[in-house]
Structure formats: structure tokens, C-alpha cells
Design brief:
2 copies of one chain form a homodimer. With about 230 residues, chain A is of the alpha+beta class. The first copy, chain A, is about 25% helix and about 25% strand. In chain A, the strands form 2 sheets. In chain A, strands 1, 2, 3, 4, 5, 6 and 7 form a 7-stranded mixed sheet that branches. A 3-stranded antiparallel sheet of chain A has the order 8-10-9. In chain A, a hairpin with a 7-residue loop joins strand 9 and strand 10. The radius of gyration of chain A is 21 Å and the shape is elongated. The termini of chain A are far apart. The C terminus of chain A is likely disordered. Chains A and B meet through strand 5, helix 3 and helix 5 of A and strand 5 and helix 3 of B.
């Protein structure tokens, strides 16, 4: 006798939340759903888990099939399992998310797929529980960005402190005090001042900086300040 | 036409990782699996998602059915989806975990269920990918405990600093320098010195402390030191 017989077999879906920073704003990649229910409504990039793939593989396949995007490192966020979340039939969905440099991947996103970037602040209403997924991904992004310098990687090779501050302000949807922000960023030891200035933003201009890649490598997990050398254990 | 027809319908399982601190060591709650395959082998508490429940509800039901434990707040850890992870048939499993005060729940764990606590450091080999699940839960616990004072809640109302240090040493499986540990803990402002001393451990004795619940409430998320008042956004 087995406990497996007669059990509830269901569909397992994957939905991908892709945030893209364009140098100024955070955007969200969406597609128009190609089939019923909710055909032609805006949706995250989703699909069903297939027999021959793991969830990570499925997330990458779905993203590539629907947008052309390849090689994006996505992180498992959470499984959504409300009973009626898909009106067609019981489906649990594993949400994956990533934050990318929009320009770096721009060319990969092929016209034929009808994927579109929306300003995160102006995104349309999404199908099913996809709005909840996006909200949770934003929360996770804020949590991670407060602990790890992940946002530094989204800027161009040479960047200014106002650019960095603008990115943080986008992610946290708030304004930071300029002087405090500069002081905190400088104190991380993560950036190195260059000689040139960007004069496009103000007459006085803003110095260019670059990421200190060696320090970044060391500090990537060095947020752990209660446990001595905690990064050793992670 | 629908995209749902002919899709791959599979089993979705839940597995529960329950760590229990007994005042001295971290323990892991296990059961002997009651059915094939791997009958009578040590296993996490697991079961299949039913039609009328969400994953959170399923995790609570499974834990209660197999151990008697109720009201334990478990957190979704990750979905495990390797293709052959369950030799019987394709099953993805959502791992949940919790860290509890073993003594507080001791009475709930009924004899009839054959659940047993094992020292985490001496646990038997588990079925399927359950060892991987436990390892990931340990990692997540270390990450969380480095950022939030969650471990403070596991101690009795009156506790000593050596007791707290011992708990941290259990979780991180290492020894901390006594003086540094005391200094860091005191600097958090999370604990209040009491008058009495515990003399069981040494002739000199160790002062009792209690958690400052008001500060704890404030500091619970106050690890975020890069973004000013980041806890506002989480």
C-alpha cells in the first residue's frame, strides 16, 4: 500500500519578476498574457513546471521563451498557494525575482515577444495575485539592499553620488538627506573618487566615483555586525 | 483552447524543520517515516498539500498530525524540486522551519506520535534530500540570528550572559571570545542587569539579566544601518 495513490496532483507554475534600473528609475518587465483566462491582460512572465526540469531551470526557460532574456540570475522568492488564485484550476506558483541593469539586457529583449518595461510606479494592474508577488519582491529587494551593497552593481562604471542616491531613493520610494547619504556611503569604503566631474546636473558638478571591487568582494556579506566574522558561517 | 490541458500535474509536499533549544543545545525534531519508500527511516515531518488548504495551513496541519505540536510559527524556507528527489514519483517539497524553546512545547509532543528530539550535532542520516533541507535551514537561522536578536527570545526570563553566549555558540557551532561577546551584547541595550547571581557555573557567579522588551520591540529590525530608518520601509 502506498500513501501516494489518490493524492491531490496539481499544477506548479513559475512567475518571474524582473526589475530593471535604467539609470534613473526602476522598471518592471511585463507581458500580455497569451491565453485564457485573463487573455491580453498584463502579467508577469509565467509558465508551468515541466517533467524534465527543476524550478530554477523552469524559471530560466519561461523568462527566455517570453522575453528573450538569458543569463539573468533570479532568486526564489516565495510560493503562492491561495486556493482560488488561478480561477482555472488549483495551481501553486513559485515566484522568482531579479534586479538588472536595463541597458545591459536591452538588446536581448526581442520585439517578437511583446514584453514591455513599465515604470514600477506606473505599472498597470496585473492578473491573479501578481500584484502581491511584485509587492513582496519589492520588500525583499529593500531588505537585501539595506544589508548588502547590491545596488552599487547597477550603476555604470563611473558614477556620481547623486546617481547612487537616486537609485536608493527609487528602491525605497523616499528622499534621503544628501549630506547624511554621502557620509554613510563614504564610510563604507566601497567607492573610490576619480578625477573627473559630471557637470550635467549642476554648475558645481559632482565627482565621479568607481566601485572598489576588492573592498566590495570583502564587504558583500560584511553587514553582520553582531556576530564576530559572521560571514564565515553563512 | 486552453494551455492548462495536458500539463504536468504533480504532488506538492511540505516538510517541517523544527529546531528546539533545551537551554544547552540545539535539537532537531524527527519522526520515523510510516510508509514506503524509506519506511521506518528518520525523516522530517512531511505530508502532501490537500485541496482545501494553503501551504502555510498544510505545514501546520502536518506538524500537528505527526507530533502534536500546535501554534508554532514556521517560516517558508525554499522549494526543493530536483527531479528524482522522491523515488516514488515527481514531488516538489516546500520546506518550512522554526526555532522553538524546547521546554515550552515539551508537553505538547505526545508519546503516541513517535517524534523524537536529536542533538543537531548527532542527528541520524535523513531520507531523500532532508539533510539538504536541514543544512539550508541552519544557514538561514545563522543569517537571521546575525541580523535580528531572535535568539534572545529562547532564553528563560532570567538568564546569564554565559547562557546567551552558549546559545550563540550552538547556532554558529564555534567559540566566541568571552570579553568581546559580553561587550557586544551590552552595547545592544537589549538586556537589563538584575540583582541576583547564578552561582551554579562558577564560584564568582554570573549576573542575571532580563530582556528589555521595549528596546527589543524597537531593535527587532534595527539592524539596517546603511539606509537611514530602513525599518520604516520593510
Amino acid at each position: 500500500m502506498t500513501q501516494y495513490k489518490g493524492q491531490h496532483h496539481i499544477l506548479v507554475a513559475i512567475d518571474c519578476i524582473i526589475f530593471g534600473f535604467d539609470g534613473k528609475d526602476i522598471n518592471l518587465l511585463l507581458i500580455k498574457r497569451a491565453f485564457e483566462p485573463e487573455k491580453n491582460k498584463w502579467s508577469l512572465m509565467g509558465g508551468f513546471l515541466q517533467p524534465n526540469e527543476t524550478l530554477d531551470e523552469a524559471a530560466n526557460r519561461v523568462l527566455k521563451q517570453l522575453t528573450g532574456l538569458e543569463g539573468v540570475y533570479m532568486e526564489q522568492l516565495q510560493v503562492f498557494s491561495e486556493i482560488g488564485r488561478d480561477p482555472m484550476e488549483r495551481t501553486v506558483s513559485v515566484a522568482y525575482f531579479a534586479l538588472i541593469d536595463l541597458h545591459q539586457y536591452e538588446k536581448q529583449i526581442s520585439e517578437e515577444y511583446h514584453a514591455e518595461w513599465f515604470l514600477l510606479s506606473k505599472k498597470p494592474r496585473l492578473i491573479f495575485d501578481h500584484d502581491d508577488m511584485v509587492r513582496l519582491a519589492q520588500k525583499q529587494l529593500r531588505y537585501k539592499a539595506a544589508l548588502h551593497p547590491i545596488l552599487f552593481q547597477l550603476l555604470p562604471e563611473k558614477f556620481t553620488i547623486p546617481q547612487l542616491q537616486n537609485l536608493y531613493e527609487c528602491v525605497y520610494d523616499t528622499l534621503f538627506d544628501n549630506r547624511n547619504f554621502t557620509r554613510k556611503v563614504m564610510s563604507t569604503g566601497l567607492i573610490v573618487k576619480l578625477n573627473g566631474k559630471d557637470k550635467s546636473g549642476s554648475r558645481k558638478g559632482a565627482y565621479y566615483y568607481r566601485l572598489d571591487k576588492r573592498t566590495y568582494k570583502v564587504k558583500e556579506d560584511a553587514f553582520l555586525n553582531f556576530v564576530p566574522k559572521a560571514d564565515k558561517f553563512i
